[in-house]
């Protein structure tokens, strides 16, 4: 299951008019990178929950066949929480399944995680990664055997009992649904939340710990970035450009210097610069990488750009100077 229903508030203003999973990383929606990752590891029967601008996600992915999966959708009229949306799709999910965020950037080895999950007698396996700053993450406290013994939510590094961040990538047996709160009793629900609302951290995982049910941490070395805010979007994009994360690039990668000519109607480019399909670069333009110019984007004549991300369809006016910026247009999809 791909979680794709959130509002992505920390990525505003980009997400005022598009869902967070559709935010482009290297000219492809970040969720497309996740769907292709699932396909590569054999998770081809897939469902995504939708809420914010669901038509943009359905319009891009359709039935999933162009991306190597069979994709169904689970609409949420009201948001059901981090785990409530999974329970809402329980009829689709089988005896064992993976849950992954559609707005994260990762090249995790899901095959290795599945082997770990199936080799342990646990109802759940959580992907974790060691981090330097625990104050930005929920962390899992584990025993020497990897069994999870507790959690801390964004602890100060001086008070942290673990540096294993919860990556929000889970593998479950269907018994997990026995530990969901009764409808209307979620500890995380607020006024106006629907009865089916439920949360992993507040409801489900504490129930597993209280029942002394075994569930495990699977520590990964793979790249993982939850694209939680604009700075992380920038970092993830540049990491994809440099190859720090193994994802597919869409467009022409220039990793050197190209001098513009009048015949080519192209400015001076100092790579790495990724040029998306159909982008237009005006006369007397200088772009210093690392930079990404999105599909159909236009850079006006005489502009100077350095370390920029120009999202698909954006237009940079003539004689503009942009340094370290993210440029987009309203309604980009």
Write the CATH homologous superfamily of the largest domain.
Spore Coat Polysaccharide Biosynthesis Protein SpsA, Chain A
- The beta-strand count equals 26
With strands numbered from the N-terminus, the spatial order across the biggest sheet is 5-4-1-6-11-8-12
Kindly report how far apart the N and C termini lie. 22 Å
Number of domains: 2
Under CATH, the topology of the largest domain can be stated as Spore Coat Polysaccharide Biosynthesis Protein SpsA, Chain A
- Mind telling me the C-alpha Rg? 21 Å
> Unreliable stretches, pLDDT < 50, 5 or more residues?
none
- CATH-scheme architecture of the largest domain: Alpha-Beta Complex
**How many DSSP helices?**
6
The level of helicity is 10-25%
Overall body shape: elongated
User: What's the pLDDT, averaged over the residues?
Assistant: 90
Sheet having the most strands: 7 strands, mixed
The CATH class of the largest domain: Alpha Beta
Assembly type = single chain
Class by SSE composition = alpha/beta
- The fraction of residues assigned to DSSP E strands is 25-35%
């Amino acid at each position: 299951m791909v979680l794709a229903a959130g509002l992505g508030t920390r990525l505003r203003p980009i997400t005022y008019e598009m869902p967070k999973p559709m935010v482009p990383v290297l000219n492809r929606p970040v969720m497309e990178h996740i769907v292709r990752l699932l396909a590569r590891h054999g998770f081809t029967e897939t469902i995504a929950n939708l809420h914010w601008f669901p038509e943009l996600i359905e319009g891009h992915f359709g039935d999933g066949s162009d991306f190597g999966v069979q994709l169904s959708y689970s609409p949420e009229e009201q948001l059901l929480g981090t785990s409530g949306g999974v329970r809402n799709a329980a009829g689709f999910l089988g005896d064992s399944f993976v849950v992954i965020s559609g707005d994260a950037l990762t090249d995790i080895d899901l095959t290795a995680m599945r082997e770990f999950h199936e080799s342990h007698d646990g109802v759940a396996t959580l992907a974790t990664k060691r981090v330097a700053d625990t104050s930005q993450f929920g962390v899992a406290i584990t025993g020497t055997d990897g069994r999870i013994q507790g959690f801390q939510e964004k602890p100060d590094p001086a008070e942290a009992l673990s540096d294993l961040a919860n990556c929000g990538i889970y593998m479950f047996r269907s018994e997990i649904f026995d530990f969901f709160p009764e409808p209307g009793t979620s500890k995380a629900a607020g006024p106006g939340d629907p009865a089916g609302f439920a949360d992993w951290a507040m409801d489900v995982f504490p129930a597993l710990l209280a029942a002394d049910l075994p569930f495990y941490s699977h520590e990964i070395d793979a790249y993982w970035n939850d694209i939680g805010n604009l700075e992380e979007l920038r970092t993830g994009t540049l990491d994809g450009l440099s190859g720090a994360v193994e994802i597919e690039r869409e467009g022409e990668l220039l990793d050197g210097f190209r001098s513009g000519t009048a015949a080519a109607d192209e400015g001076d480019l100092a790579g790495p610069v990724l040029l998306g399909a159909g982008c237009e670069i005006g006369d007397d333009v200088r772009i210093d990488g690392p930079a990404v110019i999105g599909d159909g984007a236009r850079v006006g004549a005489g502009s100077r750009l350095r370390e920029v991300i120009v999202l698909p369809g954006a237009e940079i006016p003539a004689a503009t100077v942009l340094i370290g910026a993210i440029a987009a247009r309203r309604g980009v999809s």
